[in-house]
Amino acid sequence: MLVEINLLQKREQKSKGFQWFVISMIGLIVLLIAVVFLLTTLIKNDIERTESALSEMKTIRADLQGEMSNSGYQDLQSLESSVTSLSSYPIDSDLIITQLSELLPENGYFDSYEYTGDRVVLQVLVQEDVDASHYLYHLNQQDWITSASLSIVSSDEAQLDGGGGTAANGLDQPPSYLAQYDIVLKRDSLREGSE
Question: TM spans, by residue (predicted)?
């Protein structure tokens, strides 16, 4: 008969609980790594979307600023051209004639009137040469006139009545003097006075 003797110790079996603990810890670590990787990927995608939206907004903003600056500059030029054209716009002749006629002597009237820019050339028929000088004095006293000068005083009867010998104005006493005035206007004063 044979007997076997085992002198080696019998190995104890390791507990299954420890194995499960180690496996669960490894699984938990893998799961945490996967979650961290997923979160970083999501955050990177969100950052990239935000940066692309920001760059789009910057280009749109730059385009709008360019358009606004161009349109603002064009609006400014348009306004400046409007102001320039209005400042050179002629003054209403009715206003000038009305104010000039208020200064006329009692027996005087206009023969001709020429208005160009800020200058008026005016021919007035008066009875006496003193009336012509008084009219010039009154013209020079006006604040809407820069300067007024008497360029011609003529007493030629043929010129006054058109060569026919009758009174040109239809009055009993024909004017005996033709006075020509050169008047320079102050446009700003006239405009302010008309408003």
Answer: 20-43
Q: Is 11 left (phi over 0), alpha (psi -120 to 50) or beta?
A: beta
Q: How far apart are CA 142 and CA 132, in angstroms?
A: 16
Residue-wise pLDDT tens digits, 59-108: 999 888 877 776 667 777 777 877 776 666 667 778 888 888 999 988 88
Helix (H) or strand (E) holding 13, with range, is none
Q: For residue 185, is pLDDT > 70?
A: yes
One-letter amino acid for residue 58 of the chain: K
- Residue among 118, 114, 105, 115 at smallest CA distance from 189: 118
Is the pLDDT reported for residue 41 higher than 90?
Answer: yes
Residue with tokens 């006293």: 141
